[in-house]
Design a protein that fits this description.
The protein has 715 residues and is an alpha+beta fold. The protein has 4 domains: 223 residues, YVTN repeat-like/Quinoprotein amine dehydrogenase (Methylamine Dehydrogenase, Chain H), CATH 2.130.10; 108 residues, ntegrin, alpha v. Chain A, domain 3 (Immunoglobulin-like, Sandwich); 104 residues, TATA-Binding Protein, CATH 3.30.310.200; 115 residues, no CATH class. It contains 11 helices and 43 strands. The protein has a 6-stranded antiparallel sheet, with helices on one face. The radius of gyration is 29 Å and the shape is globular.
């Protein structure tokens, strides 16, 4: 049976960060719980609900933005002390709002993640982890990549302190004191961690993780190794996971898994068995879910899911029936309650309208006087620019705390704009002159009223690098705009991976010169996505990458004075050679460049490309036939006389057109890659074969794999 959940909007605070809302423990078994939330204005708000209205318990003064909010207290007692991380400081409040702690940490950066267990405090900045006990420094660890979240296994169950770090390089790092115990490889970059069932399960070792590409999984963290229990992929192509909680919302005695995503989806997973979670229910809000909790908030005896959204809305999905069953007296009571609520809302709305008019007049008068100073209204933009492995495209997500009016997208490198199903904005393209202004893309997205979140998709061409700029204009007066920049890197379609196939035929690029470890690392950061900006610890580092479009791979190993780059795609080596030479020349560093080209690698890459080429050519042919076949169908009325392959084209016409529309210029990109491969193969031999490109394109139109390989060998 589907759970019947009704939406209730309680209150709006300022813009909220991830994991900054919690429910305080209830005083009785079915009593309502107080809500505590911290926002980016630095305000901690605690409130309860009485008769459907939010009643404040306490509210702190504004300050630095709050990056995390956790509950704590002595072990095995109700966790009702409130701790907030703001800047590099941790503050503690009682449930009544009295501040009892102000702990200034020794962290040079702002706190990004926090976890509390009894007297133990676990804090993380971008790369640094610190463990404090009773505010005294205990342990320290420097991570190889950015830390997104932290938790500690329950001490009362595992009998030792076991912190777990969720790191951007798709790894969970399990610590013991200041040392790394072991690493756990994950299918995506983990963004959030939670104890299974809220307590780590029976063993206390079970940790649930959510990734930025929408995957969900459970891992058992034992003292010596990690045991994966289950994993759920992101088949529906939903947003990244920001928050997780465990709560029995279905009332069946088993806690369900509550998941909040950055595209506004709230999901409930239940368990047929311990290792078999299934999606039971989902609900869509219009903005990202920063925090999620299960509890009893609105009315005694009725459980609900409470979500805090990016713009600060506290929204509940309650099990309380909207239409109560009962006699006429009950209905009359309900209608009186509703009428008084509607009346108070109308009064509040009228007062707000009068206040807005008054403030607008005041602003007009002040702006026309001789000493007028123009004030630009500040607004917050939550943006994310990530590479999707499935379709080798970049997702640009822009979320604003108020409604978006329009977004202008400009790029100084060639980019394909792809269709996004969720996007309801109207897009218009402007013609641009690429020569004097380096403009290759100018597009405007005009958003519908009340759109606060916009998702765009772009596909880049490897070897062409530059900047994508988004000019975001919200619906506020006076008109103002924010510019956000995103780097398109030379090897932009490569994604970090844990390992590669060493048996493939590889080409090698070797660099030697008077450069430091930090300098060559900065060049790799410039060339490739998902590489941490901080120079790695140690003397040498190896990164593995996979091309999301073609499936080719890259291994980069470097240290002070030398670097080795291996790839089964000669074009990847060619791009690296050109870009690294240019970067070294800028810094006046002499490079000794040598390379080892494997002839077999070109055939191998062609065999990887060919199935994609064949599929796209067939799709293009089918799409070109659709109009003619439809015209034939209109004239003849019956198409039984057609060959089965043509009848199937008519039957699948809508899906074919949709797929073709979703992947514009896909075939041209494949042609371009094969042409580059051809030119690069002979460039390393010192031969210019650009005059033979028209002949190559003719062979490509024929789509004959053997003929193509023979042409590459004979040229």
């Amino acid at each position: 049976m589907e759970p019947s959940l009704a939406r209730v909007d309680y209150l709006q605070v300022g813009v909220t960060a991830q994991k900054t809302m919690r429910l305080l423990p209830a005083s009785g078994k079915k009593a309502t719980q107080k809500v505590v939330v911290g926002d980016q204005d630095g305000v901690v708000t605690c409130f309860g609900i009485k008769k459907g209205e939010a009643v404040p318990v306490f509210k702190t003064l504004p300050g630095q933005k709050i990056s995390r909010l956790e509950l704590g207290g002595a072990l095995n007692t109700p966790q009702e002390k409130i701790f907030v991380a703001t800047g590099s400081e941790v503050r503690g409040f009682t449930k009544r709002g009295k501040q009892f702690l102000s702990f200034e940490t020794n962290l040079a950066e702002s706190i990004k993640a926090m976890y509390i267990s009894g007297a133990d405090l676990f804090l993380c900045a971008s790369y640094i982890y610190n463990h404090y006990c009773d505010c005294k420094d205990q342990h320290y660890f420097l991570s190889g990549d950015k830390i997104n979240d932290v938790l500690c296994l329950p001490v009362d169950k595992v009998n030792c302190i076991t912190p777990v770090l969720a790191c951007q390089d798709r790894i969970l790092r399990v610590l013991q004191g200041s040392d790394l115990l072991y690493e756990v490889e994950l299918p995506g970059p983990p963004t959030v961690l939670a104890l299974s069932n809220g307590n780590g399960g029976d063993s206390g070792e079970e940790v649930v993780y959510g990734t930025s590409d929408g995957k969900l999984g459970l891992i058992q963290i034992t003292g010596t190794k990690a045991i994966p229990r289950w994993e759920i992929g992101n088949e529906k192509k939903r947003g990244g996971i920001l928050c997780i909680d465990s709560f029995d919302i279905l009332g069946d005695g088993v806690k369900e898994l509550l998941v909040g995503r950055d595209d506004g989806m709230i999901e409930i997973y239940n368990f047929e068995s311990a290792d078999d979670p299934g999606l039971r229910h989902d609900y869509a809000l219009s903005e990202s879910i920063a925090s999620i909790q299960g509890g009893c908030v609105g009315k005694d005896g009725y459980d609900e899911i409470l979500a805090a959204t990016y713009s600060g809305w506290l929204t509940g999905l309650t099990t309380e029936p909207v239409h109560r069953e009962g006699g006429s007296g009950e209905e009359l009571k309900l209608s009186q309650e509703m009428q008084s609520k509607i009346s108070s809302l109308r009064n509040e709305l009228e007062q707000l309208q009068i206040k807005v008019l008054h403030e607008r007049e005041k602003y007009q008068q002040s702006s026309q006087c001789s000493t007028a100073v123009s004030s630009v209204p500040a607004f917050s933009v939550n943006d994310k620019f990530t590479l999707n492995k499935d379709d080798a495209s970049y997702s640009l997500i822009l979320e604003v705390q108020t409604a978006i009016d329009n977004v202008l997208v400009q790029s100084d490198v060639p980019l394909d704009l792809l269709d996004v199903d969720k996007n309801s904005a109207v897009v218009s393209f402007s013609s641009c002159d690429s020569e004097p202004n380096s403009n290759f893309l100018l597009a405007t997205y005009r958003c519908q009223a009340n759109t606060t979140r916009l998702e765009l998709k772009v596909r880049s061409i490897e070897g062409q690098y530059g900047t994508l700029q988004a000019y975001v204009t919200p619906r506020i007066q006076p008109k103002t705009c924010q510019v956000h920049q995103y780097q398109i890197k030379p090897l932009s379609l490569h994604q970090r991976t844990h390992s590669i196939d060493q048996d493939r035929p590889m080409n090698t690029l070797m660099l030697k010169g008077q450069f430091s470890f930090a300098e060559i690392h900065s060049w790799v950061v410039f060339c490739l996505p998902e590489v941490p900006e901080k120079t790695p610890a140690g003397e040498c580092i190896t990164f593995y990458f996979q091309n999301t479009f073609l499936g080719t791979q890259l291994e980069s190993t470097y240290r002070k004075g030398e670097g080795y780059f291996k790839s089964d795609n000669i074009s990847t080596i060619s791009i690296l050679k050109d870009v690294l030479s240019k970067e070294a020349t800028k810094r006046k560093i002499n490079l000794n460049i040598s390379y080892d080209v494997n002839e077999e690698s070109v055939r191998h890459t062609l065999k990887l490309i060919h199935p994609k080429l064949e599929y796209q050519q067939l799709l293009a042919k089918k799409v070109h036939l659709i109009d003619a076949l439809r015209e034939l169908q209109v004239h003849e009325g019956n198409v039984d006389f057609l060959l089965p392959k043509y009848r199937s084209i008519l039957e699948e016409a809508d899906q074919l057109l949709e797929e073709y529309k979703r992947q514009p210029a896909h075939l041209e990109r494949l042609y371009g890659m094969i042409t580059d491969l051809f030119i690069d193969k002979f460039k390393f031999k010192g031969t210019n074969v650009k005059t033979k490109v028209p002949l190559l394109l003719e062979i490509l139109d024929g789509c004959d794999q053997d003929g193509l390989i023979a042409f590459f060998d004979a040229a």
